[in-house]
Every structure is written in structure tokens, then in C-alpha cells.
Amino acid sequence: MKKVFLFLTAAMLGISAYAQDATVLIHDGGTGVQIPKEIYGQFSEHLGRCIYGGLWVGKDSKVPNIDGYRKDVFEALKELKVPVMRWPGGCFADDYHWRDGIGPLETRARISNNNWGGTMEDNSFGTHEFLNLCEMLGIEPYISGNVGSGSVEEMAEWVEYMTSDSQSTIANQRRANGREEPWKVKYFGIGNEAWGCGGNMTPQYYSDTYRRYATYLRNYSGNRLYKIASGASDYDYDWTEVLMKAIGNQMSGVSLHYYTCMTWTGSKGAATIFDDANYYDVLSKTLEVEPVLKRHIAIMDSYDPDNRIGLLLDEWGTWFDEEPGTVRGHLYQQNTLRDAIVAALNFNIFHKYTRRLKMANIAQVVNVLQAMILTNDTEMVLTPTYHVFKMYNVHQDAEFLDSDVQTTSVKANRGGEVPAVSATASRKDGVLNFDLVNTDLKASKKVLVKFDRDSVKSVTGASILTSADVHDFNNFGATANKVSEKEFKNYKVTKDGVEVTLPPCSIVAISMK
Ligand code: AHR
């Protein structure tokens, strides 16, 4: 009784009785900006067990498969609604000669994968296998072409092989290899990391090289290429500046790579063993993508005020030390609740910049770096990061809704502030979806979510991703579902908005109408 009386008094005074730790104000009037589904893109490279043992086991494998594609992984990716996938690299792309990977299996070239541990590559997964996979899963393919060690002619003929409907010798070679109709290939990257493994070029030299390659990549049979220049890494603003000036009028998009990696010279830290200070340092590093995006975008704005050229963050994610006992150079790492928080924080940032940011591809889809899926010979595990992608896929092609967050923050040792609460929101088909992240390791956070137009009244669904310990991860066997999406009930709709209590280290997704 007493409680009711207090509530009425507060209500009569026009104040909320809810003692929140953070407030999120969602501007539900709308922005008119769509979040491109490609922000939820994947990256698959011939690296470690991403392709072999991950996506592909071959038709004769004992592992259940669909035409050679690993069945469990295939089905998990279908669930994820992957919009776009980049292939065959990465660094591997500038060592890749597409003709090695077509035709009868027994005639395919065997090569050493010199970038990634010198592993033998038998090219049993090539152009047909990749493009057919994309077609079966409704994924837009993103091909990364070889500038570093390939020729203009080789790249031009690859495009013709994939997309031409003519009776040319090359198109007929595709037919002879079992594919009558050309595929549709929209995204084509002209090189990868041209400043490093893609040829160690200067930006000016790369720009001149880009012009030659781009000239001969034709639009065949109604296919229209979206040509992507190999862009900067991290804080290399000069690279973006030179490219925008020199070849801005010749490209559809330019890439950017930003990894949540604590150092490129020594130990990067373990994926599963870390202290509190390292946790906040990793989050601070991941949040730094925001000022990095802002600066690259500001440069692009100054050369392209009409916003014609897209920025594509085609490699991002956590990069820790390889798991002990795994093959050096295969970049296999576990994936904890910390990785899930990283993924959610990144999406909360990416959504804000989609006027310019048109794609993001996490590295990588299976068994490499911040993977969605881990496999062994017989089992598959969905990582905490997979669950974030799944919870967030409601934002694909939805209208972005701006929000203001009032929250406390923690100072990271490396510098930078980590806000306790982060949020994002969008609307699609009349449903408003928002996500809240509590980065605090120890404390729950009471959040009051308000809407400035009061356009939604009731919750239609709510789920949470969290676990007892931030170090928790999903492993083969009994703990495969330790960190997984669950129904969430700890919210209340009031006249002021929605009161949500977020447990420590949690991600909550709420849908409202
Ligand atoms: O994703 C692993 C590697 O990281 C890619 O091959 C390369 O482009 C980047 O340096």
C-alpha cells in the first residue's frame, strides 16, 4: 500500500520514482537513414580452418555435408541471414590465381599458403564452390582480386568468367566446368592491404595501379560491379586522402581495416585469460573505431560532398594470441562474453555512420579470429559473437533511430573512457528494436529508456546474452551453449518509458510496437 502511495505521489509531481543509473532517449521520429544490411557482413579467407574444415569438407567427407559444404555450419549461417561475404582473402587474395581453383579436382593446383603457415592448399574450394555457396544461402558475394602478384589480364578474365553470358571462350570454359548461367557478382575489391601484404605500395603508386586494373573490369550481361579500392589501416588518414584525391572518381567504395588488437609487435593477450584492466583496455580500443571512422569519413566528405563513395570496413574484430596447441599462423582463437560485448559496441557505433559506412565484414566467419562458428572434426559451436549477430539482425535494412545516452563511464588504463551503458535503435515494418549493452564487470545497471514521440506502447519480444563470468565461452561438448541468447523479463513498461535492469556484462535486445 505504502509503495503505491509513493508511486502516485511521484506521478502526481510528474517525476519518475525509478532511480536509474543510465537514461537512453530514443528519437523515435526517425532519421530517414537506412542501416545497410551489409553492415552485418562476413569475411572468409583461405586461412587456417576457415574454408577447409569450416565451410567446406568436400563431397566425400564423413562429416555430414550438402554438396561438400559442412551441413551444421551451412545451417547456422542460414539462420544468421548473412548479407554479404568476402573471399578469398585477406592477404591470401594477393597470392591467389583463380584458375588454380576451377575445373576437375584432380587437375587443380596444389600450392603453399605462404601467408598463413605454409599450409598445403589444394584449391578444392574455388570460384564455383564459393559462388554456389553464396547463391544457396542468399549471400551477396564480395570477391577480392589479386593486384599484388596477379596481372590485369588475369583479373579482367576472372570477372568475365564469373559474369559473362556471351559465347566467349572464357564464358564457355565456365559452362564446361558445369555452370551455364553467369553468377551475379556485385562487390569486387581491387587488391587487399596494398600498403602491406598486398604489394607494399605507397598510396600514390597504388592509386595509379588501381586505375589500370579498374579500367579492364567490365560490366558483362547486366552485371554491375561495385569497385572497391584497397583502403587504409586504422589511423592512416593519408592513405584515404591520397586515394580520394587520385581515384575518387574511379571507385564505388574504399575499404578500411580496424582490428581490436592491443599490439602488432608482441603478445596480443589471450582470448580467454584476462584481468579487469585488460578487459577495459580492449573495450577502449574497440570504441576507438568511432573517432577513426569519423576522421576517414571527414576526409571522404571533403572530396565527395555528395556522398557517392562508400566506406567499407571490410575487416574488423578482435585479434588475440592463437590458442595454445593450435597451428601457428592459423589464427584460431576462442570467443568469450567479452567478444560479444565488443561486437555489440561496434554495431552500436556502425549504425551511426551509415550515411557513409556501407559495409562491415567481421574477421572471420569460421575458426579464424573473432569467429561466428568454431568447429572440430565432428562438432560445431556457435560463439557468443554469433549470438550478437543473430540478436542484431533485425537492424538489417531498418531505419536508424538516433539516441542519446546518459551514463557513467570507466577510465581505461590505455586511455579512453568506456561508458557503462551503450545503446542503439532502429525501426522496420512498424517494430522498434533497441539494444542495450552493460559493459560493467560487476554492477547491474538500471536503465530508463524513453522515446521522444511515444510511438511505441508495448514490448513484443525481449532477449538477453550474458553469463556468470565475462571469461565464459562455448566449447565443444557439454558447454556448447553456456553463453547463448535467452528470454529476458527484467523490464517494465511505465508511463515514462521502459525500465530495464541489465545484469553485469550483458546485451539486451527489446522489440516494441
Ligand atoms: O584477417 C586476417 C588478415 O588480417 C587478413 O588476411 C589481412 O587482410 C589482415 O591483415
Unreliable runs: 1-14
> Which architecture name of the largest domain does CATH use?
Alpha-Beta Barrel
Mean pLDDT across every amino acid position: 96
Kindly, what is the distance between the CA atoms of the first and last residues, rounded to a whole number of angstroms?
32 Å
- The neighbouring-strand order within the major sheet is 2-5-8-9-10-11-12-13
Question: In the CATH hierarchy, what is the superfamily of the largest domain?
Answer: Glycosidases
CATH class of the largest domain: Alpha Beta
Shape verdict: globular
Bound molecules: alpha-L-arabinofuranose
What is the rounded Rg?
A: 24 Å
How many structural domains?
2
Helix content: 10-25%
Q: Look at the helices and sheets and give the structural class.
A: alpha/beta
CATH fold-level label of the largest domain: TIM Barrel
User: How would a textbook summarize the main sheet?
Assistant: 8 strands, parallel, barrel
Alpha plus pi helix count: 11
Strand content range: 25-35%
E-strand count: 27
Question: What does this protein look like?
Answer:
- This protein has 513 residues and is α/β, with parallel strands linked by helices.
- The protein folds into two domains: 16-30 and 402-512, Immunoglobulin-like (Sandwich); 37-397, TIM Barrel.
- It contains eleven helices and 27 strands.
- A hairpin with a 5-residue loop joins strand 18 (409-411) and strand 19.
- Helix 4 crosses helix 5 (169-176), helix 6 (203-215) packs across helix 7 (237-247) and helix 7 (237-247) packs parallel to helix 9.
- The longest helix is centred in the middle third of the chain and has 15 residues, at 289-303.
- It starts with a helix and ends with a strand.
